[in-house]
Each structure stands twice: as C-alpha cells, then as structure tokens.
Amino acid sequence: MSASMPLPRDAVAALLGRYQVPAGVADELMDAAGTVRPVWRRFMEHIAGQTPEQLRHQIARANHYLRDAGVYYRQYDAGVSAELEWPLSHVPVLIDEADWNRITAGLIQRANLLEAVARDIYGPNILAREGHIPASLIASSPEWLRPLVGSRPRGGHFLNFAAFEIGRGPDGEWWVLGDRTQAPSGVGFALQNRVATARAFAEFYANANVHRLAGFFRHFRDSLNGMRNMETNRVSILTPGPMNETYFEHAYIARYLGFGLLEGDDLMVEDGELMVRTVTGPAPIDVLWRRIDSNFTDPLELDATSQIGTPGLVSAVRNGNVTLVNALGTGILEIRALLAFLPKLCQHLLGEPLALPNIATWWCGQPAEAGHVRSNADRMIIGEALSTRLPFELDDHAFIHGNQADDTLGKLEDLLRDDPASLVGQEVVTLSTTPALVDGVLLPRPMSLRVFLARTRDGWRVMPGGYARIGRSENPAAIAMRRGGSAADVWIVSPDPVAQETMLAPPEGPFSRAVPGTLPSRAADNLYWLGRYVERTEGHLRLLRALHLRLSEDPSGSAPTVALLRKALDERGLGEEANVPDRLLQTIASAVNSASKIRDRFSVDGWMALNDLAKTAKRFSGRLTAGDDAARAMGVLLRKVSGFTGLVHENMYRFVGWRFMSIGRALERTQFILQTLRETTASDAPEGALDLAVEIADSAMTLRRRYALASTRATVVDLLALDPMNPRSILFSANEIKEHVAFLPGADVFGQLSALSRAVLQMQTSVAVLTPTTLDGAALQAIRQQAFDLSDLISTTYFR
Fold first, then answer.
1. Nearest to 569 by CA among 541, 538, 543, 535
2. Average pLDDT for 279-300
3. Helices (DSSP H) in 449-512: which residue ranges?
4. CA–CA dist 339, 157 (Å, integer)
5. Tens-place pLDDT, residues 669-701
6. Cα distance between residue 275 and residue 302, in whole Å
7. 736 contacts 531 by C-beta, under 8 angstroms
8. Looking at beta carbons, which pairs linking 736-741 to residues 24 or more positions away fall under 8 Å?
C-alpha cells in the first residue's frame, strides 16, 4: 500500500493500517492500486507526523470554534425539534484542481440546461408540446406553479443560485445524484466547515495551495446588489424563521454578506409593489434571496395554509417589481423523474451531451421504461416520481429491492399496474469513500458532495469546494445527518500558489459612508423585548439573591424582610419552591427567543453570552440548597447578565435598533424600581425594608457616600426615584427613554411632538417635579400606569 509513497512511509503506513476500502468501491484517498493519490500525500504525511495528543488538540480547536460560533442545525423527530451541534467530520475531502475543473465545466453546463428547461416550462412550453417532456408529469407535480406560467423573472433568469449533489461511482467518474434549485441550503455551513477545518490544520492549510471561498461569496454579493433598482434598497434573505432546520446559516450568511434577514410577516404588498414593514413605515424592497419553498411564499395564490408567506407576493412578481433568487416555481427542476429526460434534453437544447451524467433514471409512466424497472427491480431504488429527495434520503418513500420481502415486491407490482406514472426507478448508488476519523482511527466512509453555483455578472461561478456528506458507517444510506452522518470541508488543491481572496471589493470611486438600512418592525419589536427580558432577569436575580443572603444568616427565615421578599417573589411568580424558579428560566428563555429572531443583528459574542446565561441557569436548577449556596449561584448569574449587557452596550452600533432595546431595558427597570419602592416604602413595611430596597437596586455604596446617616424614607426615595445621576433611579430611566425616543422616526413632525414623544415628556416631567415628600404610594402608582401606557404606545406606533 505504501511502497511508492514518499517519506515518512512507515508513519503513513501505520496511519492507514486499518484503512480497508470495500471491494468494487472507488476511494478518494487511494487509487485502484492501493496507492495514496498525489493530491493527498502531503496531507497524509502531515497527519502521520502528529502524535495522538497533537491530533486531538487540532480536532479540539475546530470543535471549540464551532461551539463558540454557536453553529447548529435543527432536527425534527416525531414533531419535536431540537438544536443539535454541527457534526463536523474533521478530515477534509481533497480534490485535485484538474479533476475539479472537469466537474466545474459539467455543472455549469447543467445549470444552463436547467435554466433553459425552466424558461420553457413557464414560457412557450415547447418541450411538452413536442414530447420531450411528458406534460402530465409536469402538471401533476405540486412544484409546478400554474399562477407563474407566462411570468418572466424581472432579472431575466429563473436560476441565480443552484446546488448539485454529486458522487463518484465505482469507475472513478463523477455523477449527479440530484439537483437543488428550489432554495439550496448548505452554503453557510460549507463556509463554517472551512473556518473550523482551517483552524484544526492551521499549520498545514496556510501553505497547502487550497482555493479560498471568499471570492465566490464576494462575486455573488456584488451580483445581487447589482440587481437593485436603487442603491439605498437592501438585498435581503427571506427565511421561514428560527424554527427552520437551517436557520443558523440564514442568519450567518445575512451577516457575512451584509444582507437583511426577513420573514414573510415582515413583508406586505401595496399596489403590486413589495414593501418591508419598518419603523418608518413601508419601504420598497426589490431583491430577495429566497430560502423558503415556493409554495409557502404566498397564501393567496399558492398554499392557502401557509403561515410564513406574504399575501400578494406572486402579484408583485408578475408585475416585475421584485427579483427572487431563485424564481418561484423552480422546485419543479428537482423532481426525480425529470432526471430521466435530462440527457436527451441537453442534446436537444444545448446541442451537446451531458458532460457530467446523472444517475440512470427510468420514469415508469412509459411502458418500455416500466417494463425495464420491473425486470431489474433488484438492482434499483424505486420510489416516488415526483419526490425531490435524494436517493440516500429515502426511507418510507422508497422500495429498495434485492433481498426484500415478497409483500414489498407485491406492492411494487400493484403500483406498476395501477399507477405506474407515480414511480421512478434509479440505479443503486455505490458512493466512493473518503477518510474519516472514527475514534482516532482513519477509516473509509461513503460520501457525496454538494457543490454550489452562483450567477454573477460574468456568468456562473462555482464555489471552489463545497460541502461533503460523510457516512456514519459503510452503509451509503447513513450519510444523511438525521441518520448520524456528518459534514466535511472540501479542499480544491492547486499545484501552484492560489490567490488570497477576500470579501473586499475594489474601490469604484470616492468613499461615501453607507446609509444605515431601515429597521423592520419585527426586528424592532424583538430588540425592545430583548431589552425588557434581560432587565427583568436581572431584577428577578437581585430579589432571589437578597432572599438567600438572609436565609444564609437565618435559615429559619424569621426576619421580617424575608417575609417581604417572599411576598414580592410570589407576586412576580418566583415562589422559592425551586431555587432557580421556573419563571426565571422562562424569562431567560424569552430573552433567548427574542434574540434568536434577530441573530443577523447580533454579534457571536453577544449570542454566546446570552446562551451561556441560559445554560448556566438550567444547570443550577434543582441542584442548589437554600441560603449561601443559592445566593452565590444568583451572584454568578448576575455577573453573566452584566457581561451580556456590557457586550451589547460597548459593541452594538448606535442605530435605531439599539435605541429600541435601550428603551425596553429602561422601561423594565422603571417598572422594577417602582414596584420595589411601593413594597419597601409603604407605611406598614417592616424594619430593614429601606435598606433592602437600596440593596436590591445595587445602590448601597452610593447611598453611604451621599448620605452620612442611616437610611430614611426621604434618602432612599430621593436616590432610587429622583436622582438623575443614579443609573438605577426612575428619573434617570425616564431621561434615558426621552433621549432615545427623540431619535426614533417620527418623534416630531415639523416641530410638533408625536403622541409618543408627548407621553414620554409627560412621564419624565411628572417624575422630575416630585420631591421625596410628594412621591407617595399614589404617585408611584400613577407613574407605573404611565409606564404601562407608554409601552403600549410604543407597540402601536412602531410594531403593529
């Protein structure tokens, strides 16, 4: 196996000691003679030169990056979803540049072919009329959208972004397993695979002549930006939302490319024009990168049950007012039966054979093909003709024959007799293998590649790499992630040094500062409530810590202030049955949920800090004892809250969204201090209540510095309510709210204050004119009501 291998032969041979390629299977690492392919040699020598401890350390670097970046995918099982860590297979797939160039040429040809097919299906329909495609096959597919027939995309192309699943067969040649034209996923994960793998093998990667990915993304970004009617319009990604399996990459790519991230509810159609609901009112948008399936985009003309679409979107498309990437209806190009017709279609439409053949496919709606499938069923995968799933993704949707039970074969006979057009037969896929680390040992595992193409100003551009699915076992069906498969980076290796591509575009003129984009109402709503939930969490923690500090000194809980604290906690739903009450966990979860809906506007550090808070609180839940143990735990959580708010305050750009979050935080603090003062300054408040209020408001040191005497009602009320220099005081928060509201859109119109601005001024003034004597219970309640009304007014003005 290693006779012709360069030094260190012994080390590489030992590394590959258990690497046994199954008979009749091509392998990416080894050629047919059992020799390491040239493109792999340097990398294998690098791996072989590492001690087990060094290799574990390199793998850990990649894992730490993925965890720190919060990379995940969502998986559904029996209707229940879970966020799972990204399953990286750490050994990349290496492909020689010359081999890759042949793949690239074949996939560009295929993209052009599919573009021509889509243009005909939704245009003159010549292919069906002349019998090149069965009309019944197209018309029966739910992916064919009748309302789009005759509608030509505004940008002139049906496809601007495509992906192809390819695999290498036993003969060493590459085959297309499936086309992805609806809303191809994985490009963001491919980029994360590259970052993580490059960190794992940083010393090798730097000089490995591996083609970089940034140029692909830069050209596609510039192409989409060039489709806008106006430079001030922002390209956005249309996502189904946080519960989608690949939402992480939607948010990640939006940040990486500087695009907006919108959901269907963010959009509306007025007079045939697509608009974004923003805090300044409806704003036009004309380029959307669609990551939602076509049928769900418009409940008026497509799927009426969709709750994630935008009513009227199809009409905006027909009117030529918006460019969708990809065009609606392109999912028809993914159906498995279409693969049976593409070889002849390529010859007919492009005048040349397919450069990269697809998996052999027979549609059973034709008598001869049905007979062939019946006769060769034991060598085929037979399944739904209109399915868009890949062969290795099939489960109940496929009938895999060979050693199958007689009842399965009988079911096939019934279908071939009663409904042959519903079936398609495809040759069994024998995928090539590639090295994967399994418990520290290199073993061959089946793999397929997903390759991405983007239409740019200069035509199709292929990402120099991609996304490899790696099988969990030797079974090719186990490469899907829901079956335990993993994902690997793909390195296209050149014999010569490669260009160091970046996302920076060459300057095209004098510098001008970009105008901040408009803020969608949904994003403003979530930022506002994120501020409120985080501040509410802090208030809960301060009350709980105060209680447990007193229980640590007097476990009997007989002190009067303990009863006061318990009553305050009960009123907030924080009864101490659990030392980390469910209401506290729910409040933190609400903060995480709000942040998850605006991940494109959040730094990775901010997101990780918030998730760290949530995970730590869950870890403490049910494991603490009342008193000192719980008090110290609340202190830990308080510091994590402070860490998050500090990150946001120091790092977040002072755009309108930051102001909404700050308003939410200040309003929530106002409510908390108001309620605390009502509870601790009442005439029947127990001894020590005033000191408790100062402690809860984290103002004890300030009180001692300003007033060299014991706490009195006057000093406490002055400090916590009326002191404009104390960031915990009601007046400080009211001033802060007034300042932020003044910067919001529509705060004044030609010098006249808006209803919101007037309400804020009234609340701020009503606090500013009070004295410790006049700030009694009735005044506290009046201000509290003003704060409630103010929150409602903010919502009706900007969010609804």
1. 543
2. 95
3. none
4. 21
5. 999 999 999 999 998 999 999 999 999 999 888
6. 19
7. no
8. 736/662, 736/666, 737/663, 737/666, 737/667, 737/670, 737/763, 737/764, 737/790, 738/764, 740/659, 740/660, 740/662, 740/663, 740/666, 741/659, 741/663
**The total number of residues written for the chain in this structure:** 800
Percent of the chain with pLDDT over 90: 74
Torsion (CA) 313, 318, 322, 325 in degrees, nearest 10? 90
Q: Is 220 helix (H, G, I), strand (E, B) or coil?
A: helix
- Residue from 199, 204, 61, 91 nearest 487 by CA: 91
Domain ranges in the chain are 93-336+431-493, 360-427, 522-652, 654-800
Asked if 81 and 75 touch (Cβ cutoff 8 Å), the reply is yes
In sequence order, what are the residues at sequence separation of 6 or more whose Cβ sits closer than 8 angstroms to the Cβ of residue 710?
none
Place of tokens 């730097």: 206
How crowded is residue 122: how many other Cβ atoms within 10 Å of its Cβ?
23
CA atoms of 647 and 645, how far apart (whole Å): 5
Question: Who wins on pLDDT, 12 or 684?
Answer: 684
Kindly report the pTM of this predicted structure. Answer: 0.89
Q: In this structure, what token pair is assigned to residue 681?
A: 């300054």
- Which residues are paired to 629 by β-bridges? none
* CA distances, 36 to each of 1, 28, 446 (Å): 8, 9, 17
Closest C-alpha among 117, 197, 104 to residue 157? 117
Handedness of CA 650, 651, 655, 658 (dihedral sign): negative
Q: Which amino acid is at 653?
A: Y
Q: What is the largest CA-CA distance in the chain?
A: 100
H helices present in 277-388, as ranges: 313-318, 342-350, 367-375
